[in-house]
Amino acid sequence: MSPPRWFPSHRQPPPATAVSGPPPPSGPNGFWITDPAFRDRLHSATLTLLDIVEDCLNDDDVPLTEVLGGARDHAEHMFGVPSTYGVLVEAEAAAQIVQAAGLDAGSPFGLAIAQGLSGIEQLPVQQQQQLVRAAARRYAITAPSRSPATPATAPPRPAPGRSR
Predict the structure, then answer these.
(1) Among 101, 127, 129, 132, which residue's Cα sits nearest to residue 116?
(2) pTM for the whole thing?
(3) Which pairs count as long-range contacts for 123-132, CB under 8 Å and 24+ apart, including other chains?
(4) What DSSP line would sit under 13-75, residue for residue?
(5) Do 95 and 113 form a contact (C-beta atoms < 8 A)?
């Protein structure tokens, strides 16, 4: 009796070569908020997301919240942060856009950001783009310093024996 067609033949297929992409980005060194280099990466990722959101708003079919909501899926490849931290980038970008509209962003877990974004989505696309641009400018100005903080030094003391 011959073996069924689905049964593997004696010929071995060539070994599959795994195409490996770049290694996933590294996470923070310790708790993320206390790692200044990682915070800088999150800040840079937020600026990149704000730029992407502005560009994607040219397509009238994609609402603002959908553009923001897709960020976590691309965090590793586009933003250089682990995908688990993509939600932080989304939340910060959303808060910046709401604040640029002059609204209170409140807590990232509160309803103020969601309400602000739904109101912004009702605006014409050009106004939404202006708000995103304003958010990006303001956020870039508040960028963390790239140089390590140096402690303030006291002014030099006058030499002994000298008076004014």
Answers:
(1) 101
(2) 0.72
(3) 125/57, 125/58, 125/60, 128/57, 128/64, 129/54, 129/57, 129/58, 131/97, 131/100, 131/101, 132/50, 132/53, 132/54, 132/57, 132/97, 132/100
(4) PPPPPP---PPPPP--SSSGGG-HHHHHHHHHHHHHHHHHHHHHTTSTTS-HHHHHHTGGGGI
(5) yes
Whole-number Cα distances in Å, 136 to 45, 75, 128, 155, 157: 11, 18, 12, 38, 44
Q: What amino acid is encoded at 161 in this protein?
A: G
- The two tokens of residue 124 are 């014409």
pLDDT at 162: 56
Contacts of 27 (CB under 8 A, 6+ apart): 38, 81, 82, 84, 85
| pLDDT confidence of residue 6 | 46
Q: What pLDDT score was predicted for residue 23?
A: 76
